[in-house]
Amino acid sequence: MARAIIITTIVLIMGIGAAAAGLWLRRTPSSARGSVLRRPPMLVPQADGSLYDMRLQVAQMEERLEVQERVSRSMRAEVAALTRERDTLREEVASLREELARLRRQVARAASPPKAGNAPANAPSPALPPLPIPEELR
Q: How far is the C-alpha of 109 from the C-alpha of 99, rounded, in Å?
C-alpha cells in the first residue's frame, strides 16, 4: 500500500511539474510583450479638469468609427434598394397614365354627341302643361 502511495505521489508531482513547465515555455518573452502594456498611461487633461488616458479615448473613437462605417454601409444599401423601387414605381405610373389616356379616349368616343337626324331612344319626353289649381286651394 505504501508503494502505491509513493508511485501516485511521484506521478502527481511529475504532472504538476509538466504543467508548470508548459506554462513557463508558453510564456512570451518580456521583449515580445506589447510595449503598450508596460508604458504608463498617457494622461490628458479634460475640460472639466479631470485626467483621462489617451489610449482609451482612441479606442472609443475607433469603435465609434467602426459603428458609423457599418451604419453608412447599410444606409447605402438601403438607398440603392429604394432607388430601384422608385424606378419601378415610376415605370408603373407611366404605364398607368398611358392606360388612363387610352380609357379617356375610349370614353370620349363613346360619349360623342349623336348626329343631328337621329334622336336617341331614351330622349326625354316633352314637358306637360301645368295643371290648373282649384280656387279652393288658392
A: 15
